[in-house]
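Annual report, structural modelling task.

Input specification for the iron/sulfur cluster complex:
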Amino acid sequence: MDFEIKTRGKELFLALSTVTLILMMVITTVLWWFVSPRLHEISELLAKLSLTALRIFYFVLVFGTVFVYLTSYFERNFLIARFAVRSFIRILYPITVFLGRIFGISKERLRESFVYLNNSFIKAIKKRFDSHEILILLPHCLQCTECGIRITVDIHKCQQCGKCDIGELTKLAKKYNIPLAIATGGTLARKIIVVHKPKFIIAVACDRDLVDGLREVFPIPVYGVLNERPEGPCVNTKVEVKKIDLALESLLSKS
Ligand code: SF4
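The model returned the following structure:
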């Protein structure tokens, strides 16, 4: 992608997940070393199989981490990277968050770092999409609390009065002919994705919802845009519409 995406901040998650990986390898090796005499007593085959399983596990994780680094820093979409990134996210993410808690790193900082890391993978995608292949997913908290219009049912009912960013976003969706939807929760977001079958998603949300969504819809690429919360979480949140405009300009096929 040739538009500016903020990825500074990804280093925190990358560094902590690498520490997680090393710790996991040390702990499992020590555990195996303790139980291996007993395994040898039970069966030589069992001892060999458990050692092989451990080596495969290490290989997958190290391989995944190396490709995560390569994809993130060189912004190149390596053929094998999908598998590597999937293993990395599935296995290392929850343990990294747990380790972060032990080190006193807030969940919010780690999640934001994870979103920046994810967005660095997005930068590695060089292909363009047709407008119907892209979906913009928004959180309900972007809508002004004083607005009585039920935009969750049909966002295009918005009167574009200018009191919240929904108006500008509906204009943007119209300009590029892009499907736009509001998701009031994970279940509805999943439903919307099943209906639209997007090949690329631009999702606006807070760090928690974004990370849950990113992990859930993988391998569909998601450009995660963190919303601003001037009045606190879940109320009258804002988003930099220009960012989404630039992303769409760069993502859409020139026909
Ligand atoms: S821009 Fe749309 S959603 Fe926002 S307050 Fe106005 S009518 Fe309601």
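The first helix runs from residue 10 to 42.
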